[in-house]
Amino acid sequence: MKRAAADEIRTIVDSLLGEQAPLRVTCWDGSTFGDPGAPVGITVTSPTALRRLLWNPGELGLGRAYVAGDIDVIGSIFDLLALRDHVAGREADVALRLGLRDWWSLLGSARRLGAIGLRPSPPPQEARLGGRRHSKSRDAAAIHHHYDVGNAFYRLVLGPTMTYSCAYFPESGTPLDRAQDLKYELICRKLGLESGMRLLDVGCGWGGMVLHAAQHHGVEAVGITISKEQAALAQQRVSRAGLDGRVEIRLQDYRDLDDGPYDAISSIGMFEHVGIEQLTVYLRQLRHLLRPGGRLLNHAISRPAGEGGFDRDSFVSRYVFPDGHLHETGRVVSALQDQGLECRDVESLREHYARTLRQWVANLEANWDEAAALVGEPRARIWLLYMAGSALGFEANRLSVHQVLALKTTPDGQSRMPATRAGFLAVASGADTGPSKPSALDHARA
């Protein structure tokens, strides 16, 4: 007599999560197992999910099955992903994977259920890059994969600020849009921006930093990106804000910049794309572009010591950040100082990013039907899975994010830095971010 699918799959789920995992599972034939009162469940809609696990027995196979719709989540995506941190006998930061004995068990179950077959094609949303890693053309393709999925989609997820980096929440009730403005203000104060200065924002996204700095600090700003869709919308926002004469948006690789010096440089959420191979090239170029006495603020996701960046075969590397790399903060500080830049301040915003991501997830879920219509349900699933997983990673200290402030000292060794951090911290008390008149971001959101 043919066994129900649930009887075959139970062993695999127990191997991944433990027998007492608070989870309910429903299979394509209607059979079920697990805790019927569990807050979260999964529906295995097709035997193809087993085939994906046979060929990629871990996070990538599971991710592909979810993106393709072979697995559905019932309940909160956070509750499902949090099960990893309750696996009996495993460290919380170990990725879900099947051991050899579990794989053989899966093979037997797949055979009995008729799921044996050729490797299923990955969902077409998986990145397929060619050429030398971190060449200009390959970097452009990687950025296109992640950022050129539609500005309308990003607006649903990120909100009106169109800011795709960690916000800054000085108080528990700070709204997301305000927290993003406060993040820009914190960076401007760390950079010591004043009227008439020249600012470079590397990886400017949709223009939030250059708009804020020009409006509230009177700088002349250049923002560069290699995303065509970001550049187009950023330029529109600059024009709507009436800042065409003071803010320039360029579709340009950082390696092609040759119009220094700049008084200050910001790099917000771009460093993750540089790669270990280009770390020295990147920092040497920024130092070359910075005038003596100028400051550099590097805001980037970081990893714990002793771990690699993104695993090239991980779900995030294949679907979200191809060729991405997370650097350990101590290594970043050393690399900056190796280039003759003096590190003056390091600040972790780990908990702030967890909160930011949870709000982005809430935005996506609240606008799910529209988001899926804009980019397709598979891509919407990718963003939901990666943002929810990242939020839990920041909360569990598997991920962090640091702002590192560095200085190009003058020939006489003068730093021209403030005597204390009070100027940086004033923004945390809810200090005004500029004039009371509508800001450049307000105009850009209109």
List keywords for this structure.
18 helices, 42% helix, alpha/beta, elongated, 12 strands, 446 residues, four-stranded mixed beta sheet, eight-stranded mixed beta sheet
Structural class based on helices, strands and sheet pairing: alpha/beta
Overall, the morphology is elongated
Helix and strand sequence: HEEEHHEHHHHHEHEHEEHEHEHEHHHEHH
The beta-strand count equals: 12
Beta-strand content estimate: 15-25%
pLDDT < 50 runs, ≥5 residues: 88-95, 434-446
Number of helices: 18
Helical coverage, percent range: 40-55%
Biggest pleated-sheet summary:
8 strands, mixed
Work out the radius of gyration: 24 Å
Average pLDDT works out at: 88
Beginning-to-end CA distance, first to last residue? 65 Å
Protein model, in words:
The protein is built from 18 helices and twelve strands. It has 446 residues and is an alpha/beta fold. The strands form two sheets. Strands 5, 6, 7, 8, 9, 10, 11 and 12 form an eight-stranded mixed sheet that branches. Strands 2-1-3-4 form a four-stranded mixed sheet. Helix 12 links the parallel strand 9 and strand 10. Helix 3 packs across helix 16 and helix 15 crosses helix 16. The longest helix has 19 residues. It is elongated. The C terminus is likely disordered.
